[in-house]
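Tutorial sheet, problem 5. The two components below are modelled jointly, 1122 residues in total.
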Amino acid sequence: MKKSKLWHGLSGVMTFVFTLFIAVTLLANNFAGYINDFFGLTSGGLALKGSAYADKDGNLTDEGYWKLIKDSYDFCVQQVEEGSVLLKNDGALPLKESERKVTLFGNNSAHTIWRSGAGGPTPNENYVIHMDKAFTDKGFDINTTLYEFYAKHNYGAGVNLGNTSNVGETPISEYTQPLKDTFANYNDAAIVTFARFGTENIDPPKGILKLHENERALLQMIKDSGKFDKIIVLLNGPLAMELDWLEEFNVNACLWFGNPGYYGLPGVVNILTGDANPSGHNTFTFAANSMGSPAVQNFGDYTYQGQTTNLGNKYVVYKEGIYVGYKYYETRYEDAILNQGKAKSVTGAIDGASEWKYEDEVCFPFGFGLSYSEYSQKLDGITYNAKTDKFTANVTVKNTNNKAGKASVQLYVQTPYTDYDKENGVEKASIQLMGYEKVDVPANGTEKVKIEVDRYLMATYDSKNGNGGYILEPGTYYFAIGNGAHEAVNHVLGAKNATGLVDHTGKAFTASADCVKTYDPKLTEIDRTTYKNSPYENEVTVENQFADADLNYWVDDDQKITYLTRNDWEGTFPTEVKTLRTNDRMVEALDMAKYKKAADAPSYKAGKGTVYEVELEEPLYFSDMKGVPYDDPKWDALVSQLSLKELIISVQDARSIPGVAIIKKPAQTVSEGPEGLLQKFNFGDKRAATGFATLPTVAASWDHKLQAKFGDMYAEEALFCGATMVNAPGCNTIRTPYTSRASEYFSEDATLSYYSVSDVILAMRTKGLICNVKHCFLNEQETNRQGVSTFCNEQAIREIYLKPFEGALTRGKSLGIMTAYNRIGLQYAATHKTLMMTVLRGEWGYEGTIIDDALTYRANYSVGPDMLMAGTNMWCLDGNRGKELKDAIENTDDGAMLKELQEANKHIFFSMINSSMGGSVDANTVVSTSMNWWQGVLVAIDVVLGVAAVGAIVLFVLTTYKKKAVNAADNSVKEENGNEL
Amino acid sequence: MNFKELFKSKGLGYWICTGAAVASLIMAIIVFATNGSALPGVHTDGYVIGIVLLLPIIVQAVVTFFPVRFSGIINVALYGIAFATVLLRIPEAVADYFNNVHYQGGNFGMCVFYAVAVLLLAAAGIVGCFFDQDKEEKYLI
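Model answer (structure tokens):
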């Protein structure tokens, strides 16, 4: 090949490779946060303060790290011990010392579902404790032949790979005779693990919570073999399986252990051996028919008829109103017992029933849980303090056997269901959780427990009268305690002299007057004034804000719906809203790209009415803002120094937020993970952060201290990982047993979620972690989550779906909140100005950051200017929003948008200065703008390739044109000589 | 103008580059038609890929009449830019696919198609660089 041709070709190659590497460099810098994670680098390198594991000077060290890791892993075990729920035990548990030869059945015994598939902590494989190790470490001799068979043949691969529709149980035909022959030697107990998997972006298919045919066949084989002394079932995962088969297969004991995290399984074994005394209680109802609740009648994929917009063609309707989870089952039970509201009607009853019976519908109630101890509880009294507006319940707990344990004391209330309520569609559950405490009770010992609760939590939201608001009604209020909501309502019914009471198994229940007390607020009429104004912002009136979330606000008359009312169970039990037609109003409202610059908006370019890039006489720095209240003008002064280019830096989260040099605000790392950080430690062996047990287990401990300890451990790990902000935890409601992200949420109950999430977040906040609590709100299904119109009435919104977020921001003092993907009614949550400005900032007095869920620009839906102007401050996993906003401000000369961007920065910096970051900066903090080493390497490669490409082109030019010149010279010689040389 | 003579003198490099340029034109049309749904929602400027992919056919049209020695490099540079433009617009869809989520919109299969197709065009352009554009080496420059 001629040299010139060769260099031409090589020039082409080098040009392409050079271009390619330029792209790679740009790409890498766009995703710098992820690469820094991979290499264990902390963006900005700020040394965080505030750890209890720090040295005497407050610095984080390897020594502190090792102590933390030990405590974290110990805590994982404690979480499972105290958060697992013993649902059934006929005396089979705890296992005797002599019962250590066991067979672990079920594919998921070897393939535990540690957590969901959502972004979160990754396993440190060398330390993950699988079930075989958990048992053998405790002295068990397990049937390794069968365990290894399961480990090798993973029929549940789909489960581990994120497939929610695969139960993954081994077909019975795979159990060969040699395999079956091994059972005889490990027959002290058959320990069977069944799992169900939930994750984000997809819901499990309806019906999957029934016992699968392979599971049924497995249980039958175990039963028929007659070889096992005991059959113990372990339930893995956050979804409530239908458990109406326990008796059929002679199951002696059943333990729900949720998602245990990577290191928590020893906690399960400790419960089986009795080294730990189970004390967890259900955070959701285990229904006999998972398809039987009113909520599940409208759950899944529904498409509008008629014209729609981008991400606007799906809907779901919460026709059940407030009757979610136990509030349905227990309320209908009371009405059935009292023979009112047509509660016994077959409508909504389990298939084949002649009438609705509680014991046919519910396997294990909300709040229920067994222990190896036996407790008797007495509600000694309940007092109301008008000054603090709080109730104090005094409870005596007696442990009547010789096993020390932790007792959960649950306080419930029944508020009066009045004629006014019946006439005006105000709904009242027959029982609702008010508060809880957990107490250590020694063997045969007695403990006194005090539970203090806000009276506000039992107020009812009445949206029908005037502009709406919280009310208290005249009548008798019943406070009750019990092992779950069902016992509590039974005690209330006993106080009403009702007869025919049954427990969840159908056995007659004897109510105790010791477990119930009454309270009379001595009202002569409905009290609409006590809670007229916000308990957090006394100047702000609480009134209807979500009328447009109600389907009836939008649809034509022929499509209006009726919400479920306890006044008529038969007539209002939800039917599926299968068809829904849009009208012109709806189509108009579905479009989220509506923002237009106001005619009188100030000018950005001319600086008229806008103040930015100001040079203060004495520059203000980020560290100067410590302790400065949000309403102090210093915040305006701080952000006034920033140019438009600087104002867009902090609104973009791309796993990290760069520093803002002009105000010396360091860069920071943003992480995620509901039960642990998706992050590596910066100390010691730099392993991945701990994957703790997931949030239903946290809630199932029913222990404020343990819930707070989870928040504390999580936040400690964040400090050692260098993370100051995290997109977690979640506190949506487990509306149906099919809520796929249940592992990221706490409970089906608003009050349990309210307390759990606020316990966790307050502990995190105390350690300086900004928690973007998510996903606010009405995001209870994954199907069509991006854009689904979610319709719900205001009473359910106020009492159920917003309440956990209210707890997170007020009681928990969260510095962050994340909006949801879905629409509230027709309005995208991240453009819902009423939610963000009127409720969060107005009623609840929230001053921290509001971040959207990770949804990049979508035409007519996720549109930057509309989101910013509605109150969104920050964009999750989206490094392009800043440019979108900057272009919009510059191109339309919109000073109003600039001002809103400055407001967003104020909220963001306010959160940051009150976080561990604020506790770690001072006037001497240097904001590094230098590159990380890998960025330097990429630039060096670019330079080398650029030089090589230019070199190849130069050599091509030289070889080609030199040759051409030589040829030309030769030709001229030829012409001169008249012949060839 | 004698087109028969004009094309008769074209070298293998020219024909490879022209073939790639025609394919690039077709690809540009596909990109214009599909980029809105194929690329993740964050990238609203997918048409830029199409614009870059239109340029090789223009280059080939020009060099048909005014041959230059280094036209192959120009084409490769254009394919390189097109590939880089694709590469910068698809990672969100790739991440969504492997995380089994749908945060960012777009169609993973189409994104892979864009990347592979443009890579093949670039490969063809590079191969073309190793061959003569004009058999008689009659170049304008």
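Marking note: Chain A has four domains: 3-31+933-977, 40-54+591-920, 85-279, 295-572. Full credit if you identified this.
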